[in-house]
Amino acid sequence: MSLLRFTSLGLCLSLAALTGCQHYQWGTAAAGQRQEISHVYIEPVVNQSGLPLASPTLTLRLEERLINRPGHKLSGDLDVADYVLEVTLIQAVPTPRASLPEDTGRDLTFELAVQADIVWRDAVSEEVLHEARVDASSLLVSRQNLPDAIYQLSPDALDELARKILDTEPLGWGE
User: Fold this and answer.
1) How sure is the predictor about 46, in pLDDT bands with cuts at 50, 70 and 90?
2) Bridge-partner residues for 113, per DSSP?
3) Which residues, 6+ apart, have CB-to-CB distance to 144 below 8 Å?
4) Residue 106: its pLDDT value, please?
5) pTM value?
6) Cis peptide before 96, with omega less than 30 degrees from 0?
7) DSSP type of residue 1
């Protein structure tokens, strides 16, 4: 009797699994449609801000963030790209924000504000799709002096700038 119950239970579970999985689909695209993937080529970042190592750091942060976004791929070849992103880092302003309570004059909190001009272009027609100025900043609490704090702040500020750049038009991607 238990063998009959075990067999009928297994048959019912198999039938439920097959009918339940029949209409399952991967992703968020409508049935029968593929989600379109866009390819983005990132021009090397131009650094007019004077911030040391900002150009390769920002380029790397843009590429890392783009690689992790669904529906979009980083293109190493301009010929296969759908969009071209041009970034010019125009300003990096380090600012001391707070001092020790004893007012020794030694700053403990630093902010690095960075600003970039961006241009999104269509890779085929080279038409400008969107131009914008993007701002970002990062804070650091440290016992170090301002030049040392800049080296600690710049990766975080540039990562935040990369996130904001990739959230702009024409694609407006959310993470």
Assistant:
1) very high
2) 93, 137
3) 152
4) 64
5) 0.70
6) no
7) -
